[in-house]
Amino acid sequence: MPGKRILVLRPEELSSDDHKMWREIRAECGAPANPFLDPEFTAAVGRVRPGARVAVLQQDGSPVGFFPHERGPLGQGRAVGLGVSDSQGAVLRPGIRLDARRLLAACALSSWEFDNLEAGQGLFLPYAVEESASPVVDLDGGFERYARRLRVNSPSSLRQTLAKERKLARQVGEVRFEYDARDPDALRALMRWKSAQYRRTGRRDRFAQEWITRLVELLADGDEPECRGVLSVLYAADRPVAAHFGLRSRTVLSWWFPAYDRAYGRYSPGLVLLLRMLEAAAADGIRTVDLGSGAARYKESFKTRDLRVHEGAVVRARPGGAAYRLAREPARAARRFVRGRPRLAGAAARTLEELGRLRTR
């Protein structure tokens, strides 16, 4: 179309003006300032994933949209950081009309897969095959207002968590919390605990993948206000007993990698850390803590509402698109079948846990 073109660049080829425009367009859309959809996250992924690209949509020479993605064999594409990214999609100026398959063709992609597409992504929503809840905690009114709501909606959760914290202090030693810790040893401990949890529950160990470990380390060292890592650590007797590494913008904190030392499991240190982190985040200007998709009892207890996220793929009629369907669609259909049947889902979870126990013996 006259006056319009699409450039496909590596993330490091984007200029500071491109980053500025990216953020301005996100703000114009009224979308939450989710750090996973900030250009800094794409830039960090680009440093550890050689297939990372950004399609820059231009109109009369000015950017009107950005589409971060990764390109693999046969042009099979995926969301940037797929597998660890909690919010995905394109960044488009309001009113921009675009066809998803034509965008993929301009990027030399035969398919584009997503598993945490944010709500409001009209370009890709028609290709979603599954919708799930992503619980969030609203802190707009401050922590005390949230705590009052928690006392009404989930009084036992708050009461028991505070009691466990007091018990931890009595039986182990002084409890100390750091919201934004610069403690490389605690970060390494967190990754060990999380790896053990993945293996124990029969799930893929994300930290066994070098690019994910490198990505976390890069973000931990970053200082970009719109997307930087935050390591929160709960100490007892000056020893880390629980930790969380997440991403934050100025107003949104994403709950990303939480874990705890199982030797202290009877004190529920992960819940104590979450409560302390919510209090510190509210004081630091965070308005929303996104707990991420995936069912968990504690999320239901602490959330204030749910966002909707989507899973699916845009597939073109190309050899790479056919290869994608053959490789991915049967597994996705099987997951949907299991998730839609609670008893079967419970049995599957127990099987995974048993396999995990066998692996770790």
Question: Could you please describe the fold and organization of this structure?
Answer:
This protein has helices spanning 16-29, 39-48, 100-106, 143-153, 155-171, 184-200, 210-220, 269-283, 297-302, 319-339, 342-360, and strands spanning 4-9, 52-59, 62-71, 76-78, 91-92, 111-118, 128-138, 175-178, 228-236, 239-248, 252-260, 288-290, 305-315. By secondary structure, it is an alpha+beta fold. The protein has 2 domains: 4-134 and 308-360, Aminopeptidase (3-Layer(aba) Sandwich); 146-286, Gcn5-related N-acetyltransferase (GNAT) (Aminopeptidase, 3-Layer(aba) Sandwich), CATH 3.40.630. Strands 1, 2, 3, 4, 5, 6, 7, 8, 9, 10, 11, 12 and 13 form a 13-stranded mixed β-sheet that branches. Strand 9 and strand 10 form a beta hairpin. Helix 2 (39-48) crosses helix 7 (210-220), helix 5 packs across helix 8 and helix 6 (184-200) crosses helix 11 (342-360). It is globular and about 65 Å long. The relative contact order is 0.15.
